[in-house]
Amino acid sequence: MRITFIIPSYNEEANVAPFFDAATEAFARQSDFDGFELLFIDDGSTDGTLAAIRELVPPAQVDVRAVSFSRNFGKEAGMYAGLQHATGDIQAIIDADLQQPPRVAFEMAHQLICHPEYDCVAAYQEQRKQGAVHNALARRFYKTLKSSSGMDVVADASDFRAFRRNVADALLQMPEYFRFSKGLFSWVGFRTLAWPYEVQERNAGSSSWSTRKLASYALDGILSFSVKPLRAATMAGLLLSLASIIYLIVVLVQTLAFGVDVPGYATIVCLILLMGGIQLLVLGIIGEYLGRAYIQGKMRPIYLVREEYEKRGSDES
Ligand code: UDP
Ligand code: MG
């Protein structure tokens, strides 16, 4: 049995070697696998990530491979490339920054071997370590995603997962441009075991997710898996139309009964502004979907490879 670690790496120069050491050490201590492939996806790093990967000296049974992108395409694109290039019977997606211990990835893979009825093991954080606002927003997001898409997304699950080939093949059948892995994993189904783990501190460097990036990722998540916002827009339009018709009748009756009344300027201005705002909002929602359909329609590749690298472990060591 062979296991592949898919490691999306963006400017992880300082983490490559520590990660490699931790991973190979964990591999040496287990007995489920006799082959280990470390597949780094260098996501257009601007530092020496690829150079650091080239310096790694894999021991016997271990292969180091790298797929280097032509520019930064994002972690989602990295994971997709990883799925396409991985050769292991069991594959695990794991961050390069050691926040997710390689030892735990082997534990998760071990679950797949012990429990043939499961095809995927998803790690979830026992306690979120970010601030209270972040946690509240995250919880809100998972609730919204669940209620709008009807999918059962493992809350607090990261992209830290181990799975069999069949899951990888299923994911590869979805070459959509706006990728949201947590949703894709739950869309493809398969029996998934939730596995608790404790998130570690980042080994070196800093997280590349700004609040803005996270917010737009969350929006991608909802828009990729649900058309409910469009329906909400229709409902809002319907309700407003109904209210307008009622108000129209009231105004008509008033005018017929009491003649033309000049005051009412404020009401009119407020209504015009309100209606204008709602119309723009609804147009915006439609636009979000249209824009995504437009970009998807171009069928551009999800990532572009600049170079590939491979170093096999020497058998005599
Ligand atoms: N990453 C990537 N491309 C990007 C951003 C991040 O491949 O554009 C990788 C990064 O190198 C790391 C993983 O995705 O291995 C998680 O990123 P990060 O640690 O910045 O996120 P966090 O742990 O804060 O969620
Ligand atoms: Mg991290």
3D structure, described in words:
The protein is α/β, with parallel strands linked by helices and 317 residues long. The chain is built from ten helices and eight strands. The protein has helices at residues 13-28, 49-54, 75-85, 102-114, 132-149, 165-172, 181-188, 211-225, 228-258, 265-297; strands spanning 2-9, 35-42, 62-69, 90-93, 120-125, 157-164, 192-197, 305-312. It has an eight-stranded mixed sheet with strand order 7-5-6-4-1-2-3-8, with helices on both faces. Strand 2, helix 2 (49-54) and strand 3 form a beta-alpha-beta unit. Helix 5 (132-149) packs parallel to helix 8 (211-225) and helix 9 (228-258) packs antiparallel against helix 10 (265-297). The radius of gyration is 25 Å and the shape is elongated. The relative contact order is 0.15. Magnesium ion (MG) binds at residues 95, 97, 99, 202, 207.
How would you concisely characterize the structure shown here?
The chain is of the alpha/beta class. Helix content is 50%, strand content 18%. The two termini are 21 Å apart.
Please give the structural blueprint.
Elements: E1 2-9, H1 13-28, E2 35-42, H2 49-54, E3 62-69, H3 75-85, E4 90-93, H4 102-114, E5 120-125, H5 132-149, E6 157-164, H6 165-172, H7 181-188, E7 192-197, H8 211-225, H9 228-258, H10 265-297, E8 305-312
Parallel strand pairs: 1-2, 1-4, 2-3, 5-7
Antiparallel strand pairs: 3-8, 4-6, 5-6
Helix pairs in contact: 5-8, 9-10
Uridine-5'-diphosphate binds at residues 8-10, 12, 43, 72, 74-75, 78, 95-97, 99, 207-209.
